[in-house]
Automatic annotation (TrEMBL):
This is Retroviral-like aspartic protease family protein. CDD domains: retropepsin_like_bacteria (cd05483). InterPro entries: Peptidase_aspartic_dom_sf (IPR021109), Retropepsin-like_bacterial (IPR034122). It comes from the Bacteria.
Length: 388
């Protein structure tokens, strides 16, 4: 895999740019009641119907628009394709003036054309049928058995309803599942031909384009997802956290993906599942060069560790035009180790909010799985990053 394709793995939607800016601007005055509620235990477990009702109770026009977009984003995260059209059009009508005067909102609300709206209304409910058995699936280092590259990533076999299989990167750094255009044709994805979706990546790429489509069935082992809303582009196939997180209790090592894995006997580094509307992340409290930060577990990033800021001790062994290499000290759960890590000036890794202050984040990539394994159970809230 070349340097460009390696740097495509994490989606940050134009949708969320608006939401984050809106939330921050209102937080300076007073946190809106909707966001106070949505961050509570009750709000985090709320259904879409409960979210819509809570937002409908917000009378201030600007705040109602903000929470409406949050509900729309949660519909994407929940894969509720058939609920999108009516809610999308209702927001567009109710807030027509504000949308017309805001470039981000204008782009967002040109996402679906009339054909897409009609198609979405006919889609059956999204559903997940999880296997009841313990399954161990192989992780492949390359997109194909005869396709060897300089960089290994975690590929797993995914099967569509028509029997076509393809390898997808198991990417915990991608909030949404993405399918390559050619794979989408082979798998029989129902493409929303007049849909337009703009996104950026953690890695400095902007103004990228995708369409949306509906996959009738997607199988990982014997677990099946039906009526799956996916993003379709000319990039790699990614199995994102939207589906990984709905797969039950998992264990990821550098060789296998275990479904219905046994609960871990220890938890070296507890993982926090962070949900920001359509974006989702797995984060760990860490220190890099004695500075507190959050580490985002990003299996779609080939490096061991990537920092969003330059280090203190340059490593002159590796010098490339795209990145700088540093020697440093990484601390996870009190265990300190010397490490060589990379800083890419073009990367836009989002900062972390720690104790009310934004600090640079770091990415723990697939290279770290030589030393660690991931035990993931989002439903229970008990997920761990354990030393091997």
């Amino acid at each position: 895999m070349n340097a460009v394709s390696r740097r495509e793995t994490c989606l940050i939607c134009a949708l969320t740019v608006f939401l984050v800016v809106s939330k921050n601007s209102t937080a300076d005055n007073a946190a809106p009641d909707f966001y106070t509620w949505i961050e509570s235990g009750q709000g985090r477990s709320a259904s879409l119907a409960q979210m819509k009702q809570r937002c409908d109770d917000v009378r201030d026009a600007e705040k109602n628009l903000q929470c409406s977009v949050s509900v729309l984003a949660r519909m994407f995260e929940a894969k509720a394709a058939n609920q999108l059209p009516d809610y999308y059009l209702a927001i567009k009508r109710r807030h027509a003036g504000a949308i017309a005067n805001d470039p981000e909102l204008k782009l967002m609300f040109s996402m679906f054309g009339s054909e897409s709206i009609a198609t979405l209304r006919t889609v059956a409910d999204f559903s997940v049928t999880r296997t009841k058995h313990h399954e161990v699936l192989p992780i492949h280092p390359y997109p194909g058995d005869g396709h060897v590259t300089d960089e290994a990533l975690p590929y797993i076999d995914v099967k569509a309803a028509n029997g076509v299989s393809a390898r997808f990167i198991l990417d915990t750094g991608a909030p949404q599942t993405r399918v390559n255009t050619e794979t989408a044709k082979l798998m029989g994805i129902r493409l929303l031909t007049d849909s337009h979706y703009g996104y950026s990546t953690f890695y400095g790429e902007r103004d990228l384009a995708a369409q949306l489509g509906i996959l009738e069935s997607l199988k990982i082992g014997t677990s099946e997802f039906r009526n799956v809303l996916v993003f379709v582009s000319d990039r790699d196939n990614l199995l994102g956290l939207d589906l990984i997180g709905k797969s039950g209790r998992l264990k990821v090592t550098n060789k296998t993906l275990e479904i219905n894995a046994a609960p871990p006997t220890r938890c070296d580094s507890p993982i926090t599942y962070v949900r920001m509307d359509i974006n989702q992340r797995l984060t760990i409290a860490a220190r890099l060069d004695r500075r507190a930060t959050l580490a985002i577990v990003d299996t779609g990033n080939v490096d061991y560790l990537t920092s969003s800021s330059p280090g203190h001790s340059p490593d002159n062994v590796t010098v490339t035009p795209s990145h700088r290499t540093y020697r440093g000290e990484l601390s996870l759960s009190g265990r300190i180790r010397s490490i060589t890590y990379k800083y890419y000036p073009d990367y836009t890794i989002p900062p972390s909010l720690l104790l009310g202050q934004y600090v640079p984040s770091i990415l723990l990539g697939w290279g770290a799985f030589n030393d660690y394994e991931l035990n993931l159970d989002i439903a229970s809230g008990l997920s761990c990053f354990n030393r091997v």
